């Protein structure tokens, strides 16, 4: 499979840097090739076009988010603890890769409708993970039995997304991970069965 080849990931990682530094529309395939240390034509052995690079980049990186979160929630017995890990890992991954943060929070906001649909398809795996945590919280009684799962999933993802976007827009001048406890508190209070 092409995604398991080293050059594929080399190009993906290069694309993150080039798109973060130049913006998606100004990120030429030739710049990505140069950053990756490959010939321009090599890019087309792995990707159809620049749009395919962006979607593939997002798929790989979101897969990494899901993998890290799943690993982190192993052994956690409560939905509240799993939600904390979800927020912590999400913010930690973005904090550790400022270029990825710029790409996911700013450059993936494309006006092209087809591109938006493809991005939403990739996001589904991540949102399913959030869904499972919310459903588990309802089943264990940690969260209200009347809680609207779809709405809560959107609130959790939307809150994390907005907090991360604000951090990127403010040039990442403060610690995103320092905000984890407060974001967790706000979200758990919003779905707590004691409310």
UniProtKB/TrEMBL annotation:
The keyword Repressor applies. Transmembrane segments: none annotated. Residues 28-47 bind DNA. Keywords: DNA-binding, Repressor. InterPro entries: Homeodomain-like_sf, HTH-type_Tx_Regulator, HTH_TetR, Tet_transcr_reg_TetR-rel_C_sf, Tscrpt_reg_YsiA_C. GO terms for molecular function: DNA binding. Residues 5-65 form the HTH tetR-type domain. The keyword Cell wall biogenesis/degradation does not apply. PANTHER family: ACREF/ENVCD OPERON REPRESSOR-RELATED (PTHR43479), ACREF_ENVCD OPERON REPRESSOR-RELATED (PTHR43479:SF11). This is TetR/AcrR family transcriptional regulator. It comes from Peribacillus asahii.
């Amino acid at each position: 499979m092409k995604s398991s080849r080293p050059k594929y990931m080399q190009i993906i990682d290069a694309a993150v840097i080039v798109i973060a530094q130049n913006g998606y529309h100004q990120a030429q395939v030739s710049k990505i090739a140069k950053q990756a240390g490959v010939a321009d034509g090599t890019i087309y052995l792995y990707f159809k076009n620049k749009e395919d690079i962006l979607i593939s980049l997002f798929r790989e990186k979101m897969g990494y988010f899901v993998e890290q979160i799943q690993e982190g929630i192993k052994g956690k017995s409560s939905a509240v603890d799993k939600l904390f890990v979800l927020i912590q890992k999400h913010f930690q991954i973005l904090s550790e890769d400022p270029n990825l943060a710029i790409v996911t929070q700013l450059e993936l906001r494309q006006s092209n409708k087809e591109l938006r649909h493809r991005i939403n398809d990739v996001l589904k795996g991540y949102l399913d993970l959030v869904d499972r945590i919310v459903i588990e919280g309802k089943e264990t009684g940690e969260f209200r039995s009347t809680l609207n799962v779809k709405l809560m999933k959107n609130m959790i993802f939307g809150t994390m997304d907005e907090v991360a976007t604000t951090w990127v827009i403010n040039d990442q001048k403060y610690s995103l991970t320092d905000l984890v406890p407060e974001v967790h508190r706000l979200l758990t209070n919003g779905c707590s069965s004691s409310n």
